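Retry 2 of 3 after timeout on previous attempt. Resubmitting structure tokens to design endpoint.
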């Protein structure tokens, strides 16, 4: 089938449109935009800036993608570093995703992501593959979200936070610290609750994998009655879980990838 462009759509000179695309009524596609094959813009979609969208992605009405960031340090539109969206993504109604600034090589959304109604992804964010952001999720600039993380409805994420792979953040949580991989965080100020057992099982993790991850976090958050700082605790548990790649990844996150700290664990957060 051939590319179909509604007569009311505006495709500015210079835009590159892939094979078999569908561009619906009242869409506006800027001159530096690149659409892959079989991309669909349902209607009333605005895409501007140095934006590319991968094959088989779909963008729903009133989404605005790739426009200049709200970062007041960078207000020169020509300096924007763009937005790259991967393949097979679903960008739902009223989503906004802003261009990167000269502080990075651009805002990046991975493959197979679903970003739901009224969500916002700020400038210079790096979003991994298979990430789900539910309705009204608000992600500030420079946030990194690793593969297969899920952010539930109304989650608010502070600048420069990193969210680990396969993590689950419960609805209406405020995220100010980094989120451990494979974990559930929840609360008005999000805190560690437990490992994300249901999510991990869905992705093929074994009982042994989950126990090894649990042992790491149990050690860090004080299940182990032995005293000592986090470094001492990690050195001890590392010997027990060194043959499990996921547990070692959890340790690496704490030691190397986390920049804003992992916060505390609580059982009585209101």
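Retry 2 succeeded. Sequence:
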């Amino acid at each position: 089938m051939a590319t179909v462009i509604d007569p009311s759509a505006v495709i500015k000179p210079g835009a590159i449109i892939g094979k078999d695309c569908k561009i619906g009524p009242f869409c506006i596609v800027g001159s530096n935009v690149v659409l892959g094959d079989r991309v669909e813009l349902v209607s009333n979609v605005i895409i501007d800036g140095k934006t590319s969208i991968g094959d088989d992605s779909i963008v729903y009405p009133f989404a605005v993608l790739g426009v200049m960031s709200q970062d007041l340090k960078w207000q020169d539109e020509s300096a924007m570093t763009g937005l790259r969206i991967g393949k097979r993504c679903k960008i739902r109604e009223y989503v906004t995703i802003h261009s990167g600034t000269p502080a990075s090589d651009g805002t990046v959304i991975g493959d197979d992501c679903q970003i739901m109604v009224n969500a916002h992804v700020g400038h210079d964010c790096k979003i991994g593959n298979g990430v789900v952001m539910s309705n009204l999720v608000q992600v500030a600039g420079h946030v990194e979200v690793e593969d297969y993380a899920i952010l539930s409805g109304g989650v608010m994420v502070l600048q420069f936070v990193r969210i680990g792979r396969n993590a689950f953040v419960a609805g209406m949580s405020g995220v100010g610290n980094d989120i451990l991989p494979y974990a559930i965080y929840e609360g008005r100020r999000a805190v560690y609750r437990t490992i994300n057992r249901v999510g991990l099982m869905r992705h093929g993790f074994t009982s042994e994998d989950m126990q090894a991850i649990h042992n790491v976090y149990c050690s860090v958050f004080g299940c182990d009655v032995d005293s000592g700082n986090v470094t001492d605790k990690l050195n001890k548990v590392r010997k027990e879980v060194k043959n499990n790649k996921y547990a070692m990844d959890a340790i690496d996150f704490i030691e190397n990838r986390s920049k804003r700290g992992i916060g505390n664990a609580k059982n009585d957060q209101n």
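Attempt log closed. The chain has two domains: 4-142, 200-257.
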